[in-house]
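Record now logged underneath.
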Amino acid sequence: QGHLVESGGGLVQPGGSLRLSCIASGFLFNTYDVRWYRQAPGEEREFVGRINPDGDITTYADSVKGRFSMSRDNAKYAAYLQMNRLQPEDTAVYYCNAYLARIDYWGQGIQVTVSS
């Protein structure tokens, strides 16, 4: 059974940066898309970005384009979300998702709070 564990969240001031990590185990990570989602209180889960298995194609939501970037290290079974120029509206629980066909793995989520 596959598992994903996120880390790197926390409290940051507006304009600051954070790097989230997603560590996978129990499945062939290098064959899966990795996606990041986020969910703010009282709102629906929102797509943030996606990286393909080879790590050479990324797609981002308009709300984070130019500020967030995704990468992955398949040898380490890891994916990363670099978040720059963070704003209060980026406050949410961030989730890592690995997806292949109809197989879906989710992390437990990690809190990111942007506040002065």
Q: What stands out?
A: The radius of gyration is 13 Å. The chain has no helices and eleven strands. The mean pLDDT is 97.
